[in-house]
Amino acid sequence: MANTAIVGIAFGDEGKGRMVDYLAEDYDVVVRYQGGNNAGHTVINEFGKNALHLIPSGIFNPDTVNIMGTGMVIDLESLVEEMEALKKVGVSITPENLKISERAIIVLPYHRLQDQYEEERLKDKAYGSTKRGIAPSYGDKYMKKSLQMGYLFHQDYLEEQLGLILEWKNCSFEATYHKPAIEYQQTLDWLKKYGDILKPYITDVSKVLEEATLAGKKVLFEAQLGALRDITYGIYPYTSSSSPLAAFAPVGSGLPGLELDRTVGVLKAYTTCVGDGPFVGELDGEEADKLREAGGEYGASTGRPRRVTYFDIPAHRYGVKLQAATELALTKLDVISYLEEVPVITGYKLGDEILTEFPYTPLLDEVEPVYETLPGWKQDISHARKFEDLPQEAQDYVLYLEEAMGVPMRYISVGPEREALIVRESK
Ligand code: GDP
Predict the structure, then answer these.
(1) DSSP 123-157
(2) Does ligand 1 come within 6 angstroms of the Cβ of 422?
(3) What 3-state DSSP class applies to 243?
(4) In the prediction, which pLDDT does 88 show?
(5) What is d(CA 398, CA 344) in angstroms, rounded to the nearest whole number?
(6) CB 3.0–4.6 Å: which of 101, 231, 341, 376 could bond 70 by disulfide?
């Protein structure tokens, strides 16, 4: 089917990268439509293990055109570093296979600083930001005090805009944070240094997408983070600053009128979360360590240990609804093979009530998880390539989750490698 979005159902880190990497070979164009370098995909394939923070996962397929869409915020320095790291392991990156939207927003060094200053000001009330400047960049975008990538081709315009922005920005740097003012020339130099490297890749991606769809090309939309981090529908304010929802994909890519034919929701066989905010049923101590270790649950961008718990049905069901997923990909089923019994969160206890729907954010602090326990399988499943290869208990677990989500579980991954995947119907 032509246009497909691959999106996260929960808090992010669901393993979207491996699904995009797997599916990308069937698509002509892969587009990232939101976010910046605050999260990352880890993709393992013939180029080894690579973390992608900004570049779409289709970059490993030589014939795929990769687009960094209008909805993204891009740190020029970190994009250049990422391109260099990929080139070093043999990935070909050219203006033909990587195209950056002229309307995407530039993340500047002062955004990173502002992120850090604000977290410091908040002290123990900090949001757990990755301090990559993403929230300040999106904030400035909506304040209309940003630089778009395309300004790099219009030096006078860029200089004038930067001057106006710094005048305003320095008020808060000096008065609110009591920090040194941002230096105009230094910022311009930074823009020139990295901008010159990136200019060949910057273009009107709307045109590229329009031509591609008119020619009947297939487009894959790639999201960062998951539904519960959506700026509007997620667990605000512990959200990202953009919309990782499939519905936003056409808007954030460059072709707002485009329709999706298919939305693949990626979810993990258990639940993880990075950063602060409510996380129902969070495990601690040895139980948490075991799950975290088994799943290698450390941030791809930051190395931060992720918070972990068992599969949370109300949270995932809400995510499936937000994404309007037409099919699901369950990842990391192999990780929970060590469990004697597999607990699942089936509802939330609020006073005398049992909630089965994910509640409005402030209530999340008041609820207690309700569990059901399923039998574990206690054996290595990483070689399974067909559903029938899985032990009965693992099959039952998948079918149980499929029933709870109400959407077909088409893909099941049992290891990080590209081929460690069970496909229940043709892709
Ligand atoms: P993303 O941002 O949603 O792509 O997720 P991340 O890349 O942060 O996290 C996924 C991590 O899990 C990566 O290190 C993957 O290599 C790894 N991974 C993905 N699928 C599987 C799987 O089925 N089994 C195991 N053991 N690891 C997996």
Answers:
(1) GGG-----SSSHHHHHHHHHHT---BGGGGG-HHH
(2) no
(3) coil
(4) 96
(5) 12
(6) 101
Q: Cβ(44) to ligand 1 under 6 A?
A: yes
How many residues comprise the chain?
427
Please work out whether the CB of residue 34 comes within 6 Å of at least one atom of ligand 1.
Answer: no
Q: Is the CB of 306 under 6 A from ligand 1?
A: no
Tell me the C-alpha distance between 306 and 336, whole Å.
16
pLDDT in tens, 267-324: 999 999 988 899 999 999 999 999 999 999 987 666 789 999 999 999 999 999 999 9
Residue 416 CA to ligand 1 center (angstroms) comes to: 6
269 C-alpha to ligand 1 centroid (Å) = 11
Task: State the closest ligand 1 atom to the C-alpha of 266, by its place in the atom list counted from 1.
Answer: 3
What type of residue sits at position 72?
A: M
How far, in Å, from the CA of 175 to the mean position of ligand 1? 43
What's the distance, Cα to Cα, between the start and end of the chain in Å? 9
Q: Is the pLDDT of residue 208 over 70?
A: yes
Does residue 205 surpass a pLDDT of 60? yes
Q: Which amino acid is at 359?
A: P
Residue labelled with tokens 């995407």 = 104
- Average pLDDT, stretch 41-59? 88
Per-residue pLDDT reduced to its tens digit, 372-410: 999 999 999 999 999 999 999 999 999 999 999 999 999
